[in-house]
């Protein structure tokens, strides 16, 4: 494809020498002859330092800040070079699926995109989801490493899916992905907001900054005249709705305070819950086979996205009773020797931990035993708050390790325990650094009627120890370990 045609398609002025474009890269080591190179100032490197090497390797154009030195290639300059790069790259990656929707929020993104994919599939659409679990289609799931990989990978993935015949994609818009323009370019029909609570305050200066990063989804990413689905019951919902209105998107609110899908009632049952909802003047009862208020919220936002992009209400609400558990989100992993279920959940924020505990509480006849920790080299302030959530919600908590990365594991556990003084005083808190031992201890301690919750890692397949060149990922899967420990003790 010619550079001049790309610029014309992207609405970018161009009068330089034309060239045949073969690809896009943001890492100079991936540049081949004919590549457009994006040189960005990052947290660890300044991409501008690699411009000369990229041109040497065959880059014909460079997208970079106005003051970057570019010699021997066309310089596309912008104060936000990442945004310009996304705009220029988008027309190169065709085809893309017709219906794209993106989900943002602190918790529930992965669940919501995956539930949206399931609802579409049950309605007969060729659908995929992209996010923390990788790329999921009805045939397979392929891991990508990050929730939102770099923009060139993201766009290439969309094109790959479209070539396989996928027409509907729901993807996760993390705040990192949004603030780094890693997930935009093509036409996004609808966006959704799930909730906002403390996370990533190592990366964003304040909650307001964190929220603003997420709101780029409604302010800029969703197409003009597109739709926005907002979970209405969160403390930040009103503000999110303000952004939707200011942009003039079609607003769909969902939840107890929702206007479009109103949650009238929720009754937990054995392996799921009954939801009573009102939509377009009709009241419906849905047997949702997933437990917990938080899963009901995600499933309803997913339904909102399907309806907002043309789905049929009867088909969509009917399909909700056939939704299946999302990997690592309140996944029932094992049964202890005395019959206590062991659940694995990806709760790694204070709010998520409280939500996971809340979800299980109605099912607990005896005690709720929680095993959890906090990640290293991530937001430190959330640690005591996670401790508080466990202290307030659980009967017994075992603080253990969860990806210590470059930090001393004992120091992380100490910060978590700082939020647990009540529990410690009452003798209900334990500290067992080794995660396998902690899980085994919880299962061994469980008596009939108790439930064990292993939180923080969900679908993750490893324990990350060390950082930089010395980082190691030791294979670790909470579900497998829970099964092994239960098995050793005589459970299953
Ligand atoms: C803090 C953060 O988000 N960093 C991401 C960001 O890095 P950066 O822009 O700061 O890059 P950098 O390493 O400083 O390098 C600057 C530029 O020089 C280029 N470079 C660098 C070295 C070189 O030899 N040659 C070269 O060209 C790099 O490609 C880059 O464009 O852009 C990179 C490329 O897209 C990402 O790999 C990297 O993710 C790091 C590994 C990471 O851990 N990110 C996590 C925190 C993250 O993004 N997580 C969210 C999930 C959050 C959630 O769901 O809650 C996610 O969306 O996955
Ligand atoms: N709607 C919700 N409200 C509160 N907590 C939730 C909600 N949805 C999920 N959670 C909690 O957050 C955890 C992670 O859920 P999920 O993976 O869907 O979120 P995410 O936004 O993709 O997270 P990440 O930012 O790490 O990718 C769940 O295991 C659960 O404990
Ligand atoms: N996307 C999240 C995942 C955290 C998962 C938890 N297991 C941890 O390592 O802290 C992050 O990068 O902050
Ligand atoms: Mg996710």
TrEMBL record:
It comes from Novosphingobium malaysiense. ATP binds at residues 105-111. Its cofactor is Mg(2+). This is UDP-N-acetylmuramoyl-L-alanyl-D-glutamate--2,6-diaminopimelate ligase. A motif (Meso-diaminopimelate recognition motif) lies at residues 402-405. It is an enzyme of class 6 (ligase). Belongs to the MurCDEF family. MurE subfamily. One of its GO terms (biological process) is peptidoglycan biosynthetic process. Its EC number is 6.3.2.13. GO terms for molecular function: ATP binding; magnesium ion binding; UDP-N-acetylmuramoylalanyl-D-glutamate-2,6-diaminopimelate ligase activity. GO terms for cellular component: cytoplasm. UDP-N-acetyl-alpha-D-muramoyl-L-alanyl-D-glutamate binds at residues 147-148, 174, 180, 182. The gene is murE.
């Amino acid at each position: 494809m010619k550079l001049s045609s790309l610029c014309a398609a992207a609405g970018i002025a161009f009068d330089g020498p034309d060239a045949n474009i073969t690809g896009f890269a943001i890492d100079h080591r991936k540049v081949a002859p004919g590549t457009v190179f994006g040189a960005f100032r990052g947290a660890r490197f300044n991409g501008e330092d690699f411009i000369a090497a990229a041109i040497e390797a065959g880059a014909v154009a460079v997208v970079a800040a106005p003051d970057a030195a570019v010699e021997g290639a066309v310089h596309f300059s912008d104060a936000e070079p990442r945004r310009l790069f996304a705009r220029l790259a988008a027309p190169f990656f065709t085809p893309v699926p017709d219906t794209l929707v993106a989900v943002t929020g602190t918790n529930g993104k992965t669940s919501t995109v995956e539930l949206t994919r399931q609802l579409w599939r049950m309605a007969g659409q060729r659908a995929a989801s992209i996010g923390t679990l990788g790329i999921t289609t009805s045939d397979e799931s392929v891991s990508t490493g990050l929730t939102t990989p770099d923009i060139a990978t993201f766009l290439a993935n969309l094109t790959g899916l479209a070539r396989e015949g996928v027409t509907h994609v729901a993807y996760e818009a993390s705040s990192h992905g949004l603030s780094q323009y890693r997930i935009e370019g093509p036409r996004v029909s609808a966006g959704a907001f799930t909730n906002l609570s403390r996370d990533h305050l190592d990366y964003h200066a304040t909650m307001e900054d964190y929220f603003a990063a997420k709101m780029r989804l409604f302010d800029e990413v969703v197409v003009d005249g597109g739709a926005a689905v907002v979970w209405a019951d969160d403390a930040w919902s009103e503000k999110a709705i303000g952004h939707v209105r200011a942009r003039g998107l079609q607003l769909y609110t969902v939840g107890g305070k929702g206007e479009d899908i109103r949650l009238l009632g929720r009754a937990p049952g054995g392996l799921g819950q009954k939801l009573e909802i009102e939509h377009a003047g009709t009241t419906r009862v849905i047997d949702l086979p997933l437990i917990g208020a938080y899963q009901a919220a995600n499933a309803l936002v997913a339904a909102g996205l399907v309806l907002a992009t043309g789905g049929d209400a009867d088909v969509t609400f009917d399909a909700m009773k056939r939704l299946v558990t999302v990997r690592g989100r309140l996944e029932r992993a094992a049964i202890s020797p005395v019959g206590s279920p062991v659940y694995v959940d990806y709760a790694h924020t204070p709010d998520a931990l409280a939500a996971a505990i809340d979800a299980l509480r109605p099912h607990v006849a005896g005690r709720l035993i929680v095993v959890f920790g906090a990640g290293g080299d991530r937001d430190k302030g959330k640690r005591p708050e996670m401790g508080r959530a466990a202290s307030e919600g659980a009967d017994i908590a075992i603080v253990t390790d969860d990806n210590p990365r470059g930090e001393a594991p004992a120091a992380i556990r100490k910060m978590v325990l700082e939020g647990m003084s009540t529990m410690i005083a009452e003798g209900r808190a334990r500290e067992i650094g080794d995660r396998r031992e902690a899980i085994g201890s919880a299962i061994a301690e469980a008596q009939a009627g108790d439930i064990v919750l292993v939180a923080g890692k969900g679908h993750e397949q490893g324990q990350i120890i060390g950082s930089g060149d010395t980082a190691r990922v030791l294979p670790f899967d909470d579900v497998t370990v829970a099964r092994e420990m239960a098995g050793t003790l005589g459970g299953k």
